[in-house]
Amino acid sequence: MPIQAQLFITCLAEQFYPGTLENMVRLLERLDIGVEVPAAQTCCGQPLFNSGYQGEARRLAASWLKTFGASRVPIVSPSGSCVDMVRHHYPELFPEGAPEHGLARDLAARTFEFSEFLVHRLQVADVGAHFPHRVTYHPSCHLLRGLGLRREAKQLLSAVRGIELVPLRDEETCCGFGGVFSVIYPAVSQAMMEAKVRNILATGAEAVVACDAGCLMNISGGLRRAGAPVKALHLIDVLASQDGAL
Amino acid sequence: MSRESAPHATQSVDISFAEYSEKVPENIPTALERATNRFLGYRATRVAELPDWESLRQAAHEIRLHTLLHLDAYLERLEERVTAAGGQVHWAIDAAQARRIVLDLARERSVRMAVKVKSMATEEIGLNHALEETGIQAVETDLGEFIIQLAGQGPSHIIAPAVHKTREDIAALFREKLGVDAPEDPQELAAIARKALRERFLAADMGISGANFLVAETGTLVIVTNEGNGRMCTMLPKVHVAVVGIDKVVPDWESLTVLLRLLARSASGQKLTAYTSFITGPRRSSEEGGPEEFHLVLLDNGRSRMLRDPIGRETLKCIRCGCCLNVCPVYRHVGGYAYGWFISGPIGAIFTPQILGIESARELPFASSLCGACAEVCPVKIPIPQILLHLRRRVVEGDEFEPPSAPPSLRFAARLGRWTLATPWLYHLGTRLLPLLQAPFRKGEWLPDLPPPLNRWTRARPFPVFRGGFRRFWDGRKGNPR
Known about the structure:
Helix content of chain B: 40-55%
Number of strands of chain A: 8
Strand order of the largest sheet of chain A: 2-1-3-4
CATH topology of the largest domain in chain B: Rossmann fold
Oligomer: heterodimer
Largest interface: A-B, 67 and 63 residues
Largest sheet of chain B: 6 strands, parallel
Number of domains of chain A: 2
Number of strands of chain B: 12
């Protein structure tokens, strides 16, 4: 029986990065994973939760739990931030003893961020990718500090054929996205984004890799505004690459 | 307008993070980057020397939480021991009462000049202003505090109150306010301040301090400084008054040791500060040095209310090292004054709304990208992002402690958003329509200019185009895998 996975595609990736989601399907199938995409999924509720609307977020969390709880199969997502929401905040949203609380804890334990799923669950470090380019890596905050995944993405990247992985100065500093933060305090968000872009440009990399659609929207936009030809790619896009095209 | 000095006669403070963040003085990010990187560099070295750093943090967390949960008992013991050592304990329920206690002590003794050790508690109650209004000169003796007092400002960093000022700023300030020829050289500037301060130490008839810790076991006040001014202020004048938050109590010397090992390392990256003063009561005989009177003003000012909130109360574990400011990319850009009160950065963003009430500080819990860098370094493991989220909820939804303060229109928008997202057919319809609806704004692969509120995004960078389409791909693949 091959390993199965339910894809938790996340609303941001669905709206802005469907190509990455397609790559995720292809890559997982190449690794012999049987993939499912629960049709009723929408958004995990993180934007509302982070804005303080816990009551509204609870409603979305309940839908999410129903959608993904219908199957025992592990859940995989291309976003550290959304997995952090499910793993750490869903159980808090429901009082202990409530049926949703138990379900939330159960699903929290089998919901994985993509690089985590590969390295820890599948124990794969080399996915057979080919990407002969100079690349730097920005670790997303919730991946790094929320889920404690400090080395997984780098481990996967260093196994890519032809890649030149260069260190990013202040890599662990937030890029300034922060969801609603970016529109509540735009000047601060911009200053943080510009610092990140300056550090990326200083590496001379052709592409910066991250594991979250939010950071990618922010960083790619910043690179665009700076007139820099540097690409912002999801880790999955690099790992899915076999022809080496940038 | 956000105010640059501590609140005065009342505790009503006007906090406008948004407004300030749009007009951060140009030199602030540069000055802060330099200073905070220096602190963090030293800290990294000190932390690397201690293989048991994480277990120390855990121990500190447990000590602080335990003390907070049994605060009444430890405060009683503290009062008993301070009194037994010949000191006098005063209880202040709020800032106004604390000011009144200190002013009465000063007036009864005809005090004309008080010298002060750097203290966040006296900033919290706006003591300097109250003293000045009564005609008592209050002189800050910590170099950083001395500088900002000359400039008429409050502290912009917990341990480095003048961190936003460059040496050029300080030289200009000394020339203007002290009427001396001040070169732009840190050592010479320090020498000028030292000379000005020496005269005042000798002339002062009251010393005022805060405390880093209060040891309940022996009734001992603990003050850490690097300049030795703490000893001068608490030894030379005839009267020593300490204003200290009730959260500063530690049970015993063993607990104190754990916290002292963490404090300086986290703050300035020192193993210990140059001076650690332990003060137990006034002087005991005429032969010894020290003040004739020792008064301890224990300040509540909303802390016991905070203790009732199981999430928010962890804020009170804070030992004021300032490390969360140093690592915070938001603080590093805007500086301390954006936070509108004496305490800033991530800890200010959770402390201020709980002390002053959510209404006047409702912008602060949102002044964070929730990156979590603060919680990672906090020596007492305060879950700052979790408390920020807790307070965001208090702002928009209200909770058992305070009613909401956000406009009902926002709640309506949130409800509408939730309804759209929780209704799959509507969400799917949106996913299909948005790529079409965006056409008027589209330039190639980008949306460079969007209408409000998304113009707050596009002023800094373009928005990516809505693509959608994954479900079509998936449905096609399902029918015909690989």
